[in-house]
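From the shared-data thread, chain only:
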Amino acid sequence: MAALALLGAAGLSSDLLKLWDLWTDDPLRSIGMLIVAAGIVLAVGVWRQSGWELKGTWWGLAPATVALAMSAYRHSFGWTMTLGLRRFDLFAPRIALYVFASGFVLLFAGPRIWRRAWFPLALLLCAQPVPDFAMVYGDLPLQNISAHIARSFAVLIGFPPTSKELLRLMFTPDFGMFIAPGCDGVRGALTLGYLALITGYLKRVSVLRWICYVAGGVLLGYLFNLIRLCALVVYYRVASGHPRLEAFATNADYIIGGCLFLIASLLFLWVATRKSETTNTEEDDPQAELTAQQKRLVYWRAAVFAAPVLFFIVPGVNALRTHRKSFAAEVRDGIVTRAQLDGMMPKQFGGYLLNRSWQEIKDGRILVESGAYDGTASDEAVIGVWLPSHPHNMHSSWIGRGEDPLLRGDRTFATAEGSATTFDVAFYSDGISDSIAGNAFCTPASCFPSQPGPRLGMHFMVDPPDFESAGKRAVPIFFRIDRPRRSGDRSAIYQELTVEARQFLAGVDLGEVSRRFQ
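Structure, as C-alpha cells:
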C-alpha cells in the first residue's frame, strides 16, 4: 500500500510540481508544504490508532482514479466556477490531492477511518494556505497599520521619523528597515493560526473553543509583530551613531523577530495545553486477524488500484521531464541571462521603437521582462511579459502595490495584421500620473482576456489555457501607457489614453512576443 501511494504521488506529479513552485516562489505560502505533511502524518496516525483497520470499499477506487485523471489531463480539460471577479478552479492541485487521498483511505481503510480522519484530509485542501483575495484586501491594509504604529512609537520615544537622521537609519539599504509585505506580521499570524487549528483538533476541544484558539493564535501573531517593530525602532535609537551596531541591524531584525515568535508560540501552547479537554469517547476497535478471504480481498483491491496508478504514472513522469525544460525554469536557474531577456524584446512595433528594457526581480527570481517604446507623437508605451509558468494578471500586482483601478473591464483592440485581441483593461490615476493598462494571455496562435467575462456561473472547457508546455504555452502579456496627471473629466482622460493604446497596439504582434518567450 505504501508503494502504491508513492506511485500515485508520481502520477500526481503535474499537480505536485505546481504546488512546489507555489511554495518555493512565495515565502508566505511556503507553509503549505508543512500543512500537507501534517495532514498526511495525522491521517496515518488515525489509521494506526485503529489497528490498521482494513475494511475498505470498492467505492474508493472511483475518486482515486478521478484525481489521477484530473492531474494527467489538466491541460486538456478545465472546470471553473466564477463568483464576481473571483475564479475557483475545480481542477486545482489541492482538490486533486484531497480527492486522491480520500479515495485511497476509502479503498483500503474504509468509510469509518475516512470519517475519523476528516480533519487531516481537509488539511490537504489548505495546500495553498492563503487565497489571492486575502493578499489583495488584507496584506496591504496591514502594512499601513504596521507602518503607522511604528511611526507613532518612534514619536512617543522622542525619535520622530521626520528627522533626516531617522530617515537615513530606517530606509537605507545598509542600515534600516522598510515596512514591506514581510513586515506586516501576516506570516507569523498565519503560522500561529494553523498551529492553533491543528492543536484544537488534537485536543478535541469544542467548536467554540476551537474558534477561539484560531482567532487567538492569529491575533497573537499580529501583536508580537507590532512588538517586533517597536523593538526595532528602539534598536535604531540605540544604534544611532555606533557603526558596529548599525552593521548588525539586519541580523538584529532576525534575532528579535525569531525570539518574539518563539515566545508567542510557547505562550500559545502553554495556554492551549493547560487543561486536557479531550472529548473523544470513541473506543478504537483494533483490527482483528484477517481471514484468508479478507486478505485475498485486500490483495485484489491493491492489484486493481495498481492499474490506474501505473497508467497515469506515464503523464506524471512526462510532467517531471518537461518541468525542467520550461522557460521559467531556465530563467530561475540562470540559463537565460538578463541580457538575453532584454534581447528577446522586439526592437520595433509599427512606428514605436524600443527605448529601454528591464526586469522585475523578487527573492532572486526574475518575474517580469518589460520594454518601453517611444512613438513620434504619443506617450511612452510599455509591453511586459510575465515569465513564470503559471497564469498571472498584472492588475493584481498593481493593486497589491496600492494602485486601485478607477475603471476596469474587457476591451478589444486591433493588433498587428488586423487581429482583434480582448484585454482586461483598467484606468489608474494616483494624483501624479494617469495610466491605462491591459492584460491578456497569448499563445503563438491566439490571445484571450485574462479576466472571466460572466460574474456568476460554472464553465467546462476543452483545451483550457496551458501555461506550462513549452512551444504552446499561454504567456501573460500586458501593456501600459503612463502620462503626467491632467485636470479634467476622468472619462475624457480615459478615452484619450484609449486612443493612444489603440494606436500603439495596432503595430504589436502579440503572437511573436509569445513565441519569443516560450
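Residues 175-181 have pLDDT under 50 and may be disordered.
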